[in-house]
Amino acid sequence: MRLLVSKHSVGKWAAYYIYKKIIEFKPTIAKPFILGLPTGTTPIEMYQELIKLYQDNKLSFKHVISFNMDEYVGLPKEHPQSYHHYMHNNFFDHIDINHNNIYILDGNASNLELECKKFEENILQSGGLDLIVGGVGEDGHIAFNEPGSSLTSLTRVKRLNYNTILANSRFFNNNISQTPSLALTMGIKTILDAKDIVILAKGVKKASAVANAIEGAVSGMYPITALQMHNKVVIVCDEFATYNLKVRTVRYFEDIKDEYSLIGDNIDSFSCGLETSKWLI
Ligand code: GLP
Question: pLDDT-based confidence at 278, cuts 50/70/90?
Fold first, then answer.
């Protein structure tokens, strides 16, 4: 597990990291790059930066296959709060991704279990996720893996807990009864099977989740702690999100990080801060 406290912007760091990974991978039609993607407020800036990179002809998504982490059950795809709508509106409609390469769980499928099974099969058939980027809920959930999730879970139907429904109700007229209470989500194992994991966290509301993720004990009651079992995870956050960590924890990760910069906002001078130092296993 690594922690990077971004001096610049969490979203820009994430976009540049994705850029670097895709460029290094040199994807082709026969060897596409498999990318897991999140929704939420936190990644919006990342999508805006990725769109800029595409518009500046620095990055193409032609040979990228994307898998989204989760989707509500029962919301029409065109609903402004569906994750289908979010992804197309904030990202896919503005880049050159082949729309056949977009996998988003269908929360209106007649057989939800089958839908989840097919999704897992599609990930496997694609060769597995090369990189997944995610956010974190205030209670430590990742994707829609709520506290109490199995650490070996795969994509499945999940009932959302009160905290998550309450947090999400801000997008549904602050009305809990209008807020979906069921979702389809990648499982914790699905996420852990990715080769590379990046978690984005911004603001003091995420401070407890970040502290538990790094200093807490692994527990299904705190799903993000499961990432401690993966050998290549980085949590990228702003300073506010570090407020519940011990000072010495933050200092330790600062000390082992390489210098990194976004000098002049220039992608060419970007170094992710993790290049020469070893990942912690
Ligand atoms: C929802 C999503 C998660 C996301 C979380 C935090 O629960 N299912 O994937 O990480 O919200 O979102 P935000 O970035 O808006 O705080």
Answer: low
CA angle 108, 139, 206 (to 5 degrees): 110
pLDDT tens-digit readout, 167-200 = 999 999 999 999 999 999 999 999 999 999 999 9
- 239 an active-site residue? no
* CA of residue 95 to ligand 1 center, whole Å: 23
Percent of the chain scoring above 70 in pLDDT: 92
State yes or no: pLDDT of 264 exceeds 50.
no
Closest protein CA for atom 12 of ligand 1: 40
Reading the block at residue 280, the tokens are 């912690």
Helices 83-90, 44-55: inter-axial angle, 10-degree rounding: 40
Distance CA 245, CA 237 (A): 12
3's enclosing H/E stretch is strand 2-5
262 confidence band (pLDDT: 50, 70, 90):
very low
Q: What are phi and psi of 139, to 5 degrees?
A: -95, 15
By alpha-carbon position, which residue is closest to atom 5 of ligand 1?
Answer: 137
Does residue 269 register a pLDDT over 90? no
Name the pTM for this structure: 0.94
Q: 74 — alpha (psi -120 to 50), left (phi > 0) or beta? A: left
Between the alpha carbon of residue 169 and those of residues 96, 138, 181, the distances in Å are: 33, 14, 10
**Quick check: helix, strand or coil at residue 86?**
helix
Supply the residue whose CA is at minimum distance from atom 13 of ligand 1: 40
Instruction: Using most ligand atoms within 8 A of CB, pick from 141, 156, 200 the residue to mutate for ligand 1.
Output: 141
In terms of Cα–Cα distance, which of 34, 3, 36 is closest to 255?
3
Residue 226 in 3-state DSSP?
helix
Please report where in the chains the tokens 């029962």 appear, as a residue: 74
pLDDT recorded at residue 263: 39
